[in-house]
Amino acid sequence: MTKRLPRGGHFPGHIRDEFLEAIEGYYRKGDAESVKRLYELSGKLWNCSDILPGGERDMVVSFGHPGDYRAETYAQASRSLRQFLPIKYPKVFVTA
Fold first, then answer.
1. How many domains in the chain?
2. Of 21, 23, 37, 41, whose CB is crowded by the most CB atoms within 10 A?
3. For residues 61 and 69, is the Cβ–Cβ distance under 8 A?
4. CB atoms within 10 A of CB 20
5. How far apart are CA 78 and CA 86, in angstroms?
6. Is residue 21 part of a domain?
């Protein structure tokens, strides 16, 4: 039996840590692998009400337009990031 993620509230620390690493990777590199990982994790943390650390919050806000979005929780950051990730994301997965 597979373990399900909670629908909201507190999420496991290892998933939140991966999300923070993905934000930093996207901030530093912005490569296709970072986009892919961030996209996947933002979907998992869509309803996470845990508070996002300040440094990562600033990174998320810097991806968009200044003052456009407050990313106080992982859920807010996930929703904000989905707006600003490259729209051609699904093409990252196309293999020949």
1. 1
2. 23
3. yes
4. 17
5. 14
6. yes
- Measure Cα distances from 80 to 1, 61, 73, 93 in Å: 32, 8, 11, 22
- Convert the pLDDT of each residue in 1-25 to its tens digit: 555 555 666 778 888 999 999 989 8
More confident residue, 48 or 32: 48
Whether the CB-CB separation of 82 and 42 falls below 8 Å is answered with yes
Structure tokens that stand for 36 in this block: 């892919």
Mean pLDDT confidence for 45-62: 86
Which tokens in the block code for residue 84?
């600003």
Per-residue burial over 27-57, b if 16 or more Cβ lie within 10 Å, else e, is beeeeeebbbbbbebbebbebbeeebeeebb
Distances (CA, A) of 19 to 1, 92, 94: 25, 19, 23
Check whether 59 has a pLDDT greater than 50: yes
Domain assignment of residue 42, given as a range: 13-85
